[in-house]
Target: Ligase-associated DNA damage response exonuclease
Amino acid sequence: MKVTPLGLYCEPGGFFIDPSRPVDRAVVSHGHADHARPGHKAVLATPDTLAIMRARFGEDRAGDVQEPLAYGESVTRNGVRITLLPAGHVLGSAQVALEWKGSRIVVSGDYKRRRDPTCAGFEPMECDVFVTEATFALPVFRHPPDAHEIRRLLDSVALFPERAHVVGAYALGKTQRIIALLREAGWDRPVYLHGAVEKLCTLYEELGVPLGDLRPVPKGLKRGHPPILPGEIVIAPPSAEATPWARRLAEPVTCAASGWMTVRQRARLRGVELPLIVSDHADWDELLQTMEDVRAPEVWVTHGRDDALVHALGLRGIRGRALHLVGRGDEEDDGAPEAPPTAEEAAGVAPGPAN
Model:
């Protein structure tokens, strides 16, 4: 495996994994924009990831040749055996296991270890080299249970029935997960959607993930119309909460669902009234648990707080290597990566329960 300006390249197999620009042959771990790019000549991915790429990029830009590979199935390219395993990040997300001449490398993409009702859970595989993210690789990041954060949202809705609650969430993965968690918590009323998140919710349902009663936020209201949707839950891209779009809602409570809401300073700067710590990435304890589970003597770190994770790995007798791949990060809706916290931000992390 070789690190190039385009990303990870499997030399004997002749393909890239999650390349940052169009290439002849790509294996794509999942549909977020910092991993899936349009314009490749050939793309190998799970069927759900290919469907997400077609929905986001168009039929003609999701790969001239699209090769679906189900979880647990394998194909061989130039002697390299490729197997996709669930990563637990979003629908269709996969770890890429590569076997060649008796050695195994697992490229995990992005992953989480929590149960998610909208996607298959992470499956660890023992390997010689494990390639990991480090988005939340600081000991201060210990995410609370998802059910706790959803209960906080529902308690706020009950406390302020005259206000709409607008939850900022990424369009792919986080929006659908929040909806599914709300359903599990007993919310059987409609969930209202900003137009930018509707398409992928429809796709999730077409791919077999039930989300219940979903409705668009009403459009075309005349000037002077009373504020709408008091007591309701609205899901929108994180950037939408600060736009004129939100002004027609009834005194909106600005919420945000992200692991970054652990950092008080980020919540304050974004004007978030109700931060919800719901992450689609592994926290500190889960990262370390994963390293124990895969039993790899060598770990490569693609992005995030690689310094902290590499140090922790060294203390456990594991060789760590920071790859510094370009363009990786916690995806915003425009695809721009979000930087890991500074030391000053980390000092302002809100306390949360350990896992």
The domain at 2-140+280-343 is CATH 3.60.15.10 (Metallo-beta-lactamase; Chain A). The chain has a mean pLDDT of 92. The chain has eight helices and 21 strands. Residues 297 and 317 are 8 Å apart (CA to CA).
